[in-house]
Every structure is written in structure tokens, then in C-alpha cells.
Amino acid sequence: MSRFDFDLLTIGAGSGGVAGSRRAAIHGARVAICEGSRVGGTCVIRGCVPKKILMYGSQFGEALEDAGAYGWRFGRPTFELAALVAAKNAETARLEGIYRRMLADGGVRLIEGRGCLVDPHTVEVDGRRITAGRILIATGGRVSHPPIEGIELALDSDRLLDLERQPDHLLVLGAGYIAVEFAGIFRGFGSDVTLAYRADLPLRGFDQDIRRRLAEAMDGRGIRLQAGFAPVRIERRGSSFAAIDGEGREIVADAVLAALGRHPNTAGLGLDAVGVRTRGRNGAIEVDRFSRSSVASIFAVGDVTDRANLTPVAIAEGRAFADTEFGGREQAVDHSLIATAVFSQPQIATIGLSEADAGARGHDCQVFEAGFRPMKNTISGRSERAYMKVVVDRSNDRVLGAHMIGPDAAEILQALAVAVTMGATKADLDRTLAVHPTTAEEFVLLRTPRD
């Protein structure tokens, strides 16, 4: 009989923790998982899922506007944010119930309460000590609050998801995924929106041509872009709020969203006490390619490691950990080629290297691109354009990266990501027959490289 209560105890019942725990149980391990908040984690409760529900809701206004050009006639529409938030809450509650059932049906015991490490094999949960042969930390990330005076006056993405009354004017601070997504969502609801950020363009790290086109599209949708704005103070002005930068410039709005990043959720876990090494100022848990920490019995997956902070990556890491430790099959996640999407409006999706990154790594590249107005926009009269880009290594014809901004970009790139992951060449794309008429077909119709 084992000297431990469980073979595996997971701290954090989000995407990575649930995936790893269920897979370990399938391999025959005795598994428990503890969670101090709602089951499902960031993605299900306060991230990807509720955000995309709001995104869908925000797009109906544009669809109703366009419908007139296609012969449809309606009365004057109205929008109630509270009704959408209630529907979103009902859906996240339903999904949380599914996650709880998955754990129960998979033989994983749920222990409600926040876990803290006591020693390499012991976790304390609300005063109760539980032992395990292995401990998996999957506590995800938390919203960052930079040292800006008055930052407590701003909303963060967690609180914004539960806002039931939309502001007439929303100021969004930041230029990452969350910032550009919520800027588009609230503009779609009808709010005036200002997006203010330090850099020259939104979405640092993405291909430059995509970033530039996103800025143009957001401006075309009526979102005011304020580049080079680094706030040092937020203050209340009656019923409004003002964000002020180091040069004294200010932006006044009815509400401020501080979308200024996230960091690993490691506070209060007791990592130092048991010798788990962290790295960087954000406190990410240091792990090897098999998610092993500096303590032999302790592992970590997902955003808490700050490797690639995406839900599918956390799930893959959790399953790879379980297969390696309990399934007798050594598995590691390849983080070098990951497809991702930004649910901005219009959407962005990408896989592989940007043009700049490919050049920096010494590749002699050819670039193929296409920009056009989607068919749907020709009847509605919208001027917004789609853009696709493929970066190819000239020496071996291999596709190094594919990038898109436009309608259904995420759905299109998911399919293309299979080919790129398999090592597709430009010749492979060229000999693929197009599905016509579609936006996606442009990826297989690119023939002439850019000069």
C-alpha cells in the first residue's frame, strides 16, 4: 500500500490541470485535484469562452447594418449588455458543471480549497494536509497591475466580463490580445473606444504587415488609436476617469480597462519553502521540456510556467506530463510551432515565423501575399479588406509562416496549421485545388512572390 494519499495531487482545476489529472487517472493513478475558485480555470470562466461569447454578441450590430444591403428590413435595434452577460454567465455555469462531471466520471477526486505546498509530497488545503507521490502545479495566470498611480480605479478583464452597463466611452490601456479584443467588442456594442498603448502599433510580436493592417481596420471601425501613450496615473474626474502619461497628456473616459498583461499565479503557493525555482520578475516556475521543476516530485504546466500561454498548450503539456509519468511513454510538447488567433475585429490568425523573425534567423525568404475586399463586403459596401501572407524558405521551399487578418481567420488557419506542422512546402500549397468561392482559397492561389 502506498505511503501517500494519492499518486498525483494537482493544484489548479483549469484546462491544463484537468487534462493532466484525467489522463493520469486513465493510466491507473489515484488522482485528486484542488481548486480554490471555480472549476474550469481562466479559459472557461473568465477568459477564452466568455470573451468569445461577448465577441459574437458584438458582431450582430454590424450584421444588422449589412443586412439592409442584402434586402432585409428591420426596425431600429437596441442592445442590452446585461442580457448578454446573463447568457454568458449561464453558459460558463453549464461548462463548469461539465468540467466537474468530467473529473468525477474520470475518477479524479475534487478537493475544493486553495492548495499550498508544505513539503515535496504534501499540500495543505484549507488546513487539511494531503500527500501525493507527485504534485502538479497548474494554477495558471493572474491579471497584472503595473505600478501606475490609481490603477485600482481601472477595470481589469475579469471585472469587465461582468459589466452590465456599457460605458459611453471606454479607454483601453494596452495593445495585446485582451486589449484589442475588448476594444473591438465594446466598439461593436456601440461604445466610443480609445485604445492607448506604448508602442507604435498593437500586438507586439506579430508580423508587421498584420499589425499595420489591424491598426488601419480598427481606425476604420471608429476606434481611436493613441500610440506612444504610457500612463503614469489614473484619477477620478467626477463620474469619469482620466489616464495621464508622463508628458502630461490625458485621455478622459467613462471607464478604463487596464489590459496590461498577465503573470504566473504563483503567489502563496509556498514554492520557496520547498525549493521550487522560479525565473524572471514574474515568478514563472522553471521547468524542463518534460514539465519537471527543480524538485523531483513537483511538476508544472500551463501559464504558471510562462512558456506559451495558450489553452491548447496547457492541455497538451498536462497530457504529456501524465503520459510520461504514469503512462510509461515519454512525451514532450514542441513549443516551436504553435498556431494562435486573436479575436480582434477583424480576426487575426498565425502560425510559424513572421517575416522579420525568419530573416533574423538567417532564412533566405520569399514572401507571398494577397490583399482584397471579401465578397460579403462588396454588397454591403464595407471597405475593410482581408490580407494573407505566406513566408517561404527559398532554399527548400518550406513554409515557415502563414498569417492572416480578415473574416474567419481563426477557422482558416486551424486547417492550414495541419499542413504547416507537417512541413508543407509552397509547392504543396500550389498543387492544392481551391474551394471556390472562399476567402481561404487565396492561400493556395498565391503564385508571384513579392519583390
Query: How many domains in all?
Result: 3
Largest sheet composition: 7 strands, mixed
* Beta content: 25-35%
What is the typical, i.e. mean, pLDDT?
96
Unreliable sequence segments? none
Q: Report how far the terminal alpha carbons are from each other.
A: 70 Å
**What structural class do the secondary elements suggest?**
alpha/beta
Shape: globular
The CATH class name of the largest domain reads Alpha Beta
Number of helices: 13
Annotated CATH architecture of the largest domain: 3-Layer(bba) Sandwich
CA radius of gyration: 24 Å
Kindly state the percentage of residues in helix.
Answer: 25-40%
- The total beta strand count reads 23
| CATH level-3 fold name of the largest domain | FAD/NAD(P)-binding domain
CATH superfamily of the largest domain: FAD/NAD(P)-binding domain
Task: Walk me through what this model shows.
This protein has 451 residues and is α/β, with parallel strands linked by helices. The protein folds into 3 domains: 202 residues, FAD/NAD(P)-binding domain (3-Layer(bba) Sandwich), CATH 3.50.50.60; 110 residues, 3-Layer(bba) Sandwich (FAD/NAD(P)-binding domain); 99 residues, FAD/NAD-linked reductase, C-terminal dimerisation domain (Enolase-like, domain 1, 2-Layer Sandwich). 32% of the residues lie in helices and 25% in strands. The protein contains 13 helices and 23 strands. Strands 1, 2, 3, 4, 5, 6 and 18 form a 7-stranded mixed beta sheet that branches. A hairpin with a 4-residue loop joins strand 12 and strand 13. Helix 3 crosses helix 4. The longest helix is centred in the N-terminal third of the chain and has 25 residues. It is globular, with a radius of gyration of 24 Å.
